[in-house]
Every structure is written in structure tokens, then in C-alpha cells.
Write a structure and sequence with these properties.
single chain; globular; alpha+beta; Aminopeptidase; 4 helices; five-stranded mixed beta sheet
């Protein structure tokens, strides 16, 4: 079993979980600093969810739901979904995704989007199983270069 919680404040436990989970998600972005995490939690459009293993209470995963309004309505976007390698295959990713979808539905969003690397086979199977439809689109990213100074 797993318990999903919406994070409302920065704690040492949350920071330690970020240090463990973010590197399992990406090697191109470092875990957030306490100030960055605080800014995320203070944002009106961002919702950070964590998953706790029921037996141990250990934080085993996280997901962020971003809600934004455009000319065509309120939309949601899931970001930085990761389940600890040691806890995968136990329904934690599904529970986190359900929490994000429910929060988006309650807020009045008309849809929720996400991207997932093709190499994340289990995640892609999960998203399709949960009703996400793969879109035929190009995804682009512009990365701002950090100045040295």
C-alpha cells in the first residue's frame, strides 16, 4: 500500500527525498535547493505530491502537477514523475498519477498532458493503461545557457 500526500512545506525529509529521487529521473538537472523547493510550494500553479510506503513511511516517489490557463481553457501538465528504483512495480506511479489527475479534475482542467521518454517502457505502458493517448506532435525545448560571472 501507498499513501499520497500533497507537500505543503519544505522539510529535511522532503529535501533528502529530492536528493535521492531527482538523480533517478534525470542527470541533466540537479535536485532543487531549499529555496527552489520553497518557491515551487509557494507557486499557485504547482502541486507537489509524494508517495509514502505504508509500512515504512519512506518517501518512495513524487510527481508535480502544474495547472495553467491558456486561451483554450485550464490545463494540467505532469512533470518530474519518479518512483524510487527499489519501489517500482508496486503501483506507486499509478497512485501518483491518479492523485495528479484528481487534483486537475477538481481544479476544472479540461486535460492533462505529460511527456515520457520512450525508454521508460513501464511508465509508458502505465500511462496508456490509465487512458493517456499518445499524441503525434513534435516536442521542442529551448535551454537558456547559464552565464559565467
Amino acid at each position: 500500500m501507498v499513501k499520497i500526500e500533497k507537500v505543503t512545506q519544505v522539510t529535511l525529509e522532503i529535501l533528502e527525498a529530492m536528493l535521492r529521487l531527482v538523480p533517478q529521473l534525470t542527470n541533466s538537472s540537479p535536485p532543487p535547493t531549499p529555496d527552489e523547493l520553497d518557491a515551487l510550494l509557494e507557486s499557485e500553479c504547482a502541486n507537489l505530491f509524494i508517495a509514502r510506503e505504508a509500512a515504512s513511511g519512506l518517501i518512495a516517489g513524487m510527481a508535480t502537477l502544474v495547472l495553467y490557463r491558456g486561451p483554450t481553457g485550464l490545463r494540467g501538465y505532469m512533470e518530474d514523475v519518479v518512483v524510487d528504483e527499489a519501489a517500482r512495480g508496486q503501483g506507486i506511479g499509478e497512485a501518483l498519477t491518479k492523485a495528479c489527475l484528481e487534483a486537475a479534475r477538481k481544479a476544472g482542467a479540461t486535460q492533462v498532458g505529460l511527456t515520457s521518454h520512450p525508454g521508460r517502457v513501464a511508465a509508458n505502458v502505465l500511462y496508456r493503461k490509465m487512458g493517456f493517448e499518445q499524441r503525434n506532435t513534435n516536442v521542442y525545448r529551448y535551454v537558456f545557457k547559464k552565464s559565467r560571472g
